[in-house]
């Protein structure tokens, strides 16, 4: 059966398309999750638990930067005084399964974007439909940059802070594996999705829901929201919050620029 045009599709037809989008995306995630199962040792030992080592690349870079700025070893990480433990009988099995699913989602994100593009493309102009590759590439690139930003910046700063924070020498830090991995997953995926803001603004502008003037008018409120988010995802110190806030503000500014370009192109088309 030939695929219906957008104007010929009923509400139920749209729901059917959405259902198959979810089915295919879920299948892709599960297939990739199965693949990651066979390299789970590397994923856990090298990637996920990498920030628990003082030799992690982020700590070494911060230490070198501290020395170059003349702060001696003030921000050098020399030890991680905590242990990660499992307190539930089925805990490690659950962690393995959901970590593989999360890895499958991250690796399968470009495919999910492709499915989303096929779902929304009937509502776009013919010229815009030709930009599928650009959409997939740019969206995937932003997502993976966000994931790397979360992994190499937010996760190490969070781990270092909570590992060294203590209310008394009597209390020892012993984190559950669920808590630790949950923090890692939340940080990387949240950053990856936040980096999609320019793409989201692009489509909101195309739909007429957002304008450059609107984004600029509420810039100060956006700054407040970004500061709050930075305060939530980073340790409570000024340096960490500034390091995280600056890229987020740049992404917001890029979103405003993209919105301006979209409006300018629409004005040309409308004459």
UniProtKB/TrEMBL annotation:
The chain crosses the membrane at residues 21-44, 95-114, 134-159, 179-205, 217-233, 239-263. GO terms for cellular component: TAT protein transport complex. The keyword Transmembrane applies. Keywords: Cell membrane, Membrane, Protein transport, Translocation, Transmembrane, Transmembrane helix, Transport. It is found in: Cell membrane; Membrane. It comes from the Bacteria. One of its GO terms (molecular function) is proton motive force dependent protein transmembrane transporter activity. It is a multi-pass membrane protein. Pfam families: TatC. One of its GO terms (biological process) is protein transport by the Tat complex. The keyword Cytoplasm does not apply. Part of the twin-arginine translocation (Tat) system that transports large folded proteins containing a characteristic twin-arginine motif in their signal peptide across membranes. NCBIfam families: tatC. Forms a complex with TatA. PANTHER family: SEC-INDEPENDENT PROTEIN TRANSLOCASE PROTEIN TATC, SEC-INDEPENDENT PROTEIN TRANSLOCASE PROTEIN TATC, CHLOROPLASTIC-RELATED. Belongs to the TatC family. This is Sec-independent protein translocase protein TatC. It comes from Flavobacterium segetis. The gene is tatC.
